[in-house]
Design a protein that fits this description.
globular
Length: 448
């Protein structure tokens, strides 16, 4: 009997791969050419990622405090709800729901970009309209919808199947990226690489700050563990080391992909390329390397879809269970799943391809503020719940880091300040949340 129970839970390896898959997505393959190399180079990017990873580790310490005294689906939402009340619980749940949901179509639309890179304009057919400066094609909608539907069906089958697929995807991602880095390193002119990226002038506080500022976006997903805390085969309080390992892998993968691009191109060259990482891999390893890189990218975006679908269903189910969203989302089946929540997530995610990738990116960018807000709540509650002085100080520091992230994203002179479009979406989501809480939750409380 005990053996059967153990097999049903997620192992530490399962959780590690879930965290890695949620952290590493499409952005890790694109940012080296569009952001990291042009704005920060190699050294400042590595330092910025290291500092950012350390900040996330501080926040993770507050999550450890949470999982020591509070276990349950909904994670940060139910933690804030039970300690600060209904309003604060709703704020956290409303914030995280958009964070998780927006990442699913973001990763799904990456399939369109992958196929365009392979087959060119042959995959473009059925032009529908232009939105946010992006042309939307019928082919885009079909391509992006397929993985959403597939992973909806997989998640309806149960968590164990999702976890096995996640293990394959995340492990493949880590192995392939690491192997490609060392192969390309051996085929590169290190003197030119050093000239382009190694020097005192390459380390600058402004460059480092520009990387640290986007850390909330880079590491959204590290906090998926609380959402599956009821499904672990080990004590949730012992998940801290696993989460830290996932964060460390995230830092390393981001840094390796950036160096893969940097080994072939100077900053100004990388910025002009459509996809610097892919161009570097192709130039140094040929078609074979490019195929493996596509496999790694496929693993990254697939792992992201799966990871955030798992987290979203648990979160929405918990919010519904507290009568803060429609009750049908909180209905569980015999497998302990929230099938209607999963279908709802799929339905919302399928809207994504219709509004264009650029609009999705604006939503994801502003969701970084919402993620940082949730981190702050976990730290704030942790100050009260902590037993040791060290834990109290760690949670207070986590609060400070969360506020720093929010400031970096909203302060007018910040190098990572959100664009006007993202600010508009942030205001709209806030107003919608106020209206939903004011009128929607009241009606649902009456039905209770």
């Amino acid at each position: 009997m005990n053996t059967q129970k153990v097999k049903k839970g997620l192992s530490k390896f399962d959780v590690l791969n879930l965290v890695i898959g949620s952290i590493i997505g499409w952005g890790s393959f694109i940012l080296p050419g569009t952001f990291f190399l042009p704005k920060a180079g190699v050294l400042s990017t590595v330092i910025g990622l290291g500092i950012g990873g350390f900040f996330i580790a501080i926040i993770q310490k507050a999550y450890q405090v949470m999982l020591t005294c509070h276990v349950g689906e909904g994670g940060e939402f139910s933690y804030a709800l039970s300690n600060l009340g209904k309003i604060h619980g709703f704020i956290v749940g409303w914030s995280l729901s958009l964070c998780y949901l927006s990442m699913i179509p973001l990763n799904a639309t990456a399939y369109v970009l992958i196929l365009r890179k392979i087959f060119g304009s042959t995959v473009l057919w059925g032009h529908l309209y232009t939105i946010g400066g992006t042309d939307v094609y019928a082919s885009d909608i079909v391509i992006a919808s397929i993985p959403i539907v597939v992973f909806t069906l997989i998640n309806l089958r149960g968590l164990s199947l999702s976890a096995r697929i996640q293990n394959v995807m995340s492990a493949s991602l880590v192995v392939i990226v690491t192997a490609l880095f060392f192969i390309i390193l051996g085929k590169s002119d290190l003197e030119i690489f050093s000239h382009n990226y190694f020097g005192v002038s390459q380390i600058a506080s402004a460059k480092i700050a520009s990387v640290v500022a986007i850390v909330p976006f880079l590491f959204v997903g590290f906090d998926v563990i609380p959402q599956v805390s009821n499904d672990l085969r080990f004590s949730p309080a012992k998940a801290h080391a696993t989460a830290l390992a996932g964060i460390a892998f995230g830092v390393v993968i981001y840094a390796l992909l950036n160096m893969i691009a940097g080994l072939s191109f100077a900053p100004e060259e990388a910025e002009k390329l459509e996809w610097a990482v892919a161009s570097s891999v192709t130039e140094k390893t040929g078609t074979a390397g490019f195929v493996f890189m596509l496999l790694a990218l496929f693993s990254a975006v697939t792992g992201g879809i799966n990871g955030f679908m798992i987290g979203s269903s648990k979160l929405l189910g918990a919010v519904a269970g507290e009568k803060l969203s429609p009750s049908f989302l909180g209905e569980k089946n015999e497998k302990g799943l929230y099938p209607k929540a999963i279908l709802f997530i799929a339905g919302v995610s399928l809207i994504g391809p219709w509004i264009g990738r650029e609009v999705i990116v604006l939503i994801v960018d502003m969701a970084s503020v919402l993620a940082a807000l949730a981190y702050g709540y976990v730290g704030f509650v942790g100050i009260k719940k902590s037993v040791s002085v060290f834990d109290k100080l760690s949670c207070a520091l986590a609060c400070a880091v969360a506020l720093l992230f929010i400031a970096l994203l909203l302060w007018p002179t910040s190098p990572a300040r959100l664009g006007a479009g993202s600010i508009v979406f942030l205001i709209a989501w806030t107003v919608l949340g106020v209206l939903f809480y004011r009128f929607g939750t009241r009606d649902m409380s009456r039905k209770k």
